Amino acid sequence: MSRLRDGVVAAVAVVTVVALVSRVVGLGVRPYHWDEARVGFWALRYLETGVYQYRPVAGGPLLYTVTRQILGFAGSSDLTGRLFVAALGGTAPLAALLFRSRLERQETVLLAVVLATAPPLVYYSRFLRGDVPVAVFTLVAFGATLSWLDWDQPRFLYLAAVSAACAFGSSGFAVATAGLIFVAAAITFDHRRVTGQPGDPVDALVKKTDRLRDHKRHLAGAGITFLGTWVALFAPRGGIIRTDGMSVLTAAFRDPVVAFVGVRILGRPATEFIPAVSNAIPVLTVTAGPLVAVAALGFLADRYAQADSHRPVVAFSAVWGGLGIIVYPLVAASLGPWVIVHVVTPLAIPAAAGLSKLVDYGRVAMARGDAARLAVAAMVLLSVGSHAGLTATAAYETGQPGDPLVHSAQPVDDLEGIVGEMETAVGDRQDASARVVWVGSQVHTEANLRSPPLTSGAERAVFAQRLPLVYYLERAQVPTSSVSQAENLTGDPAVVISVPSEAGVVARQLPDHERRSVQVASDRELVVFLPEWSRQWPAGSDTSKSPPAIDIGGSASWICQWLLDLSPTIREWHGRLKRILCALQRLSGSPSPQSVLDIDCGWLPRSLERHQQPLAGFSSRYTTGRQRR
Fold this sequence. Notes:
five-stranded mixed β-sheet; 61% helix; mainly alpha; 5% strand; 5 strands; 24 helices
């Protein structure tokens, strides 16, 4: 038995390695979605000030707490910002081992495969939101609880306590998940009475309760562990130091709950049932349709199996995921495709059972020489695998409108290159013109958008309209200001970011600047004005896109960032040589030969301050940059 168990562990470990690689490769290629930029912006502010307080509109505290440490140690980039979520999504297949006592060996391995390859899980494991963390931590808490009940080992109970606290700290979706788990447990518990199986369900529950009394010490320890993890996540950081115990408890327990209820329950706008569900079901069908089909197969095969073959864990997970198709879209703050993550994760268990049935069906057909049945099983398995592979490829692309996994707020154009040019343009100025000016009533405000919370609706609207560029400018430490109309623009600012309606007037006021169109969302465009010397492609090129470049991938980009940051001299001389080549190109009227100096990995134009440096050094330089403003 131990040898067979070790074989399962080895297989799950291999699947986990593949899942990790699939999450990390090219992690920094896609520009930040607006939601990612919002989280990244406030994580940078937390890194600089050391002040943080839970705000339900900004998501759970876990992302900010962990991301702050990663950014402080490894520097700020699209790759490092997403690294924590990618690591959690990549290690999610290990959670399959927690269900070994309730699933067959083959089902356990297939569960790991589903968690590693399901397209919504792959895509949003490469996305800076709390959906994958809350789904993974909830699954771990569920599996650890079952392992504790089956194997009577206290470490699983403590793992469940920590995971449950981290789930609540990841996203408010954990509250909806808790309600669904309660309903699924009630339905699964009542299954024996409905099917007329011998034995009183109430007596069975009483026996389980009596068993729990024998573990009072560990239950109390798990409760303390849960509360301690909760305090570590939700307690405010920085600001006024609270010294008395009651104030600490109030800030850690009462205030977050009151804030969540006020914002996400009492203060949230009403959600219409039909639009919410009709938005989620097509996304689920297109991105995970075969997976849902085999999950239904696994659920039905288990439900109508012989009484001694029925596994409550399959029915429980199917009810959880099935009801989630309705509940999660209704409680979501916005109708984004990421809600599918919360449905697919529990459905992975009945899907593994369904895939196992198909494998067994094909194995029996092969033994009997039944070519027809073998072909059916092979075709279904192939369709599931090919659909997952083809759909998950969207995770490695910039994201085009129309893709069901790509939200409309995903930028179409790459932003790294143009932000780097903005930073270079500002860095070349030594006077008051060394700034980026936002132009347009939609992006203009007199308020300071760098200190949460944004109290007024107007401030929140302006901040939203500046996404995701506001994050990239914050990361580059570029000074910014704004005017409501182009006529109010004074001086010769290094860079201007304008709404399209004001771009014509800006172009007349800044004739020496080059106009660039940037698609920051599928339905939104901004116009960037840069000094003409920053142009890096020949006349007649499509200036609405970034210049032709060699893309060496996210992981190599991360290494190159680190190496360049270790040598400020290389960075300084690179900037000088690059400007010389651009000047020669303009004089000759022809493009310069492509060379290593022209390679655009999304990191060459960035300043030394915002990359891979230790926490103390990064924080001090970040503060110095603020003082220069």
